[in-house]
Hints:
Shape: globular
CATH topology: ABC transporter involved in vitamin B12 uptake, BtuC
Amino acid sequence: MSTVARRASAPLALAAFVAAAAAMPSVLGPARLLSMSLALIFAVAALSVVVITGWTGQTSLAQVTFMGVGAFTLARLMAPRVGLPLYLAAPAAILAAAVLSVVIGLPALRLRGVYLAVVTLGFAQVLQDAAFNNSTITESQNGLVVARPVLGPLDLSGEHTLYYLLLGVLVGCCLLVAAMRRSSLGRRMISLRTTEVGASVRGVDLVSTKLAAFSISAALAGLAGVLYALEIQSVGPAPFNPLQSIFLLGLVVIAGQRSIGAALVAGLLYGWMPPELTRHFTDSTFGPNATNLVAGVGLLLVLISREQLRGMALRLPRGRWPWPRRITVAPEVHRNVPA
C-alpha cells in the first residue's frame, strides 16, 4: 500500500474502530466491558510507546511506571486530605509524569538502544521500591482509594458513562498524535530513528527533540494512569510493576510500533488477552504465566519473520524485483600517483 493510500485509509480505520467500540457496552457483560475499558486505557499508554520508540527509536522501559506516577499523584491529590477536584488533579498528575521523564531523560541523552533500556528499567525499579511500595505513599496494602466524581453533566460513577469518556479521551489522543506526526516536531523526532548524526547535520537539535519525546510520551502514559485510577478506583503498586513495561513494549512491537493502529491493537491485546487467557488456562500448567508466554512467542515470531523476509528480499534476482532496490555506491578511491 502506498503512503498516500495509507494516509487516506487511516481516518476510515479509526472511524470504524470508534464505531465498533461505541457499540460494545450494549453487547458485552460487566466483566468483558471492564476488559474493553482497560483496552482503551492501555491504548493511550501504547501511544506513548509509539512516540518514544516507534518514532524516535528510543527504547524506554518505564512507560508503565509513568502510568503509576499519574495514578498515584491523582489519588493523593483527590484524597480528602488535599481534596482537589478531578479537573485540577488530572492535569497535575500528567504534569508530574512529564517532569519526572525530563529528570530521567537529561542523564540519558547520550544513551540509545539497550543502554537506554537498562537505564529506564533501573529507574522504574528504583521508583517501584522507593515510592510505589512505600507505605507512606500507598497508606495501606490495598492502595489508595479513588472516588469517581461528577464532572459537570457526567456522573462518572456509571460504568457506561466512564467507558464513553475513556473512548473520547482515546480518540482525542489519537487525533493529537496524528497531528503531531505531521508537524515539524514529529518530523524531527522521526529523523532521530535512523541516524542521530544525520539528523544533527540537517539542523535538528538532539537535546530538545529527545526531551520533547520523553516528556510527551510520559504525559500520555500519565494520562493513561489517571484513567486507570478512575476505572479501578484503587491505586496500588502491583499493576505498575516494571516488567509490565516490557510486556507493553512487546505488544506494541508485535502490532507494528510506528502507527496509531499499532497502539490500538496493542491496547486491545493488553486489555483482553490477560483475562481471556487466564480464563482458558486456569487448570493448565501455564496458569497466570500464559499471557507472558503468548506475548513472548509472538514477539519472537515477529522478529524472526522480519529477518526472514529481509533475507528473502535480498536473495531475489534483480530482474524480478518489482521496485527499485537500494544500491550502495562504494566511495571513489583516489590514489597518489607520483608525477
